[in-house]
Amino acid sequence: MSKVYFSTWNGELINNIGKPEEEWEESAYNLPAQYDDHRDSKAFIGWDGVALFDENVDVIRLAMEYAAQYQEYSEACGRCAPGRWGGRILYDQLDKIARGEGALADLDHLKEIGKSMQVTSKCEIGKTVPTPIIDLMIHFEDTFVDCITNQKKSKHYDDKIGYIAKITAPCTDACPAEVDIPGYIEGVRDLRFDDSLEATRQTMPLAHTCGRVCPHPCEDACRRTNLDEPISIMALKRLGADWETDHGYDFFHPMEKAPSTGKKVAVVGAGPAGLTTAYYLAADGVEVDVYEELPVLGGEVTVGVPEYRMPWDKYLQDIECVRDMGVNFIMNHRVSVDDMRRFEKDYDATMIASGTRISKKVYCNNERPEITGYWGAIDFLDRVNLNVKFGITLTEPQKKEYAIDADFVDLTGKTVACVGGGFTSMDVVRCSIRAGAKRVVMIYRRDEKTIIRNTTYEEYHEAVEEGVEFMFHSAVAEMKDENNILKSLVIDKFELVPAKDGGRPELVKIEGASEEIEFDYLIPAVSQAADLKFLPPEWELDMTSWSTIKTNGKDYMTSRKGVFASGDCEYGPMTIVNAVGQAKRGASVMSRYLQSGEITLSDEEIMSDHLRKLKVYDKKEKVKGWLPGLAREHSSVLDIAYRRTNNAEVNLGFTQEEAMSEADRCMRCYYIAMVQA
Question: Do residue 354 and residue 365 come from a single domain?
């Protein structure tokens, strides 16, 4: 709800002109009436209408400045005359009126051009820019006519006014890293893979990685879904990175590294959040040292994500791209309390990006870590991937602990139960198949639909194809052992019972339906916790109820000045793209903090927060001007029988022809939003 003077947003006409402010009707939408903690908004204008919060707004100049943004961002592709020339005409005519040189015929001309752009422009930015401008001309016609008739400037034409604009798209808005998705798709379509990679790395340094293991929330917000099927956005992202790697080119950085600022930052952890922080700070001229506990870089993506999903040679390219920016890595260094105290003296700021590497318990009866066959998901995946990717074998004590005779994780003839319903549990069960297990079962309290939502459709169905069994509406009630060796699990069954108040259905145990099943291994993958023993106790950092480091979720500074946190250790287990998105903003805030000592958000970041509240994607929108029925391309995958026996990459990606065909389905849904503050 927003209190407005006037609004046409999303077809909602609110006209409080002439009414006292205390009687103003409120908008049903989260319009940015307050820009930030220090400034109120006077007006908001965008793809779906206009909202005025102050009756003193110069509506003519507002329309003119919005038309100017269309030219400034130059996102009109030039492929159609309405987009190429229409926007220029809108600006020229509005400027002419605003400076007191307009004619009454200009109004009709503006409306005609605007309506032509709405109908005939190929891209959404060309279709939507005229919408709020026409609204203003219709509802404030007297203001326009007065300016023209009296040949006078609009009331604030010569005044210095703050207009803050942002270009977005439904897919970009849904991406936690705010990648310019239409931009990199257009690069693929035009076979300009350098342009595609540039669009990605502006906000996402891990192009190989997020082109392979991203849950692609952007596809859920793709406007093409309203027409037929979403674009294969994730699959197209990897094209630019693969082009760079496959051709042996030097790393392409979308920005020139800034001169040294003389500032130094310590980063704890070399996972996605740590790598992202380091990359963008180094680009800003900051000296960055990254401390990593493991003997390899990359964090959980390296030791947790299997080779068949994220090939090490590809991830290594992302890591080396970060190193190429001048980042210094210190490996095999477990950061201690004394280290953190030293960092505060030796560095200008610290980013904690240590992840969550402690597997949480199932919380069943007789759950004891000392039982042979009880194996935490993180440790299990570490052992698998350190061997597959780096040839690191099991030690003799580890062989004994895990009841394995081989130098690697060999589950031949074994039965494995994994409890969970997210990406980590999917990695566990699919790795178990490849390790030779004769039976692999995932036990999950909820249903198939939820597990697909937690992961991806592709991930779930590939697991089913490979032979993973899923026990839905089930939970482990008890572990049974003999002489501390796991023998079986007692599994309870549940049913969904509608809530009496109409809320979320409850899971209710079905009495008498429990069963006991023999298993050799129980691998809990329900969640992970952060190991934060390295934090000095005297710092007394604020913590969340989940025992993660508390920030306000916007600037990622902790309760101690100069100490920041991002990624899993700040929020709890999250997707790679979410960790990258947090770290990118954290690096941006840190860069400004290092120079000014102040914690601030950029206008770009403030606008992003406003647009997320407003909702850029409308799933009820009736998309017009595009032909439905263009089939979505699906990349090839390895044969099921073959991939069960090895760790070769399952998803083979698009051919050039497939990529171009899929990229051509993109409707290029750029929108412009602008605030007068």
Answer: no
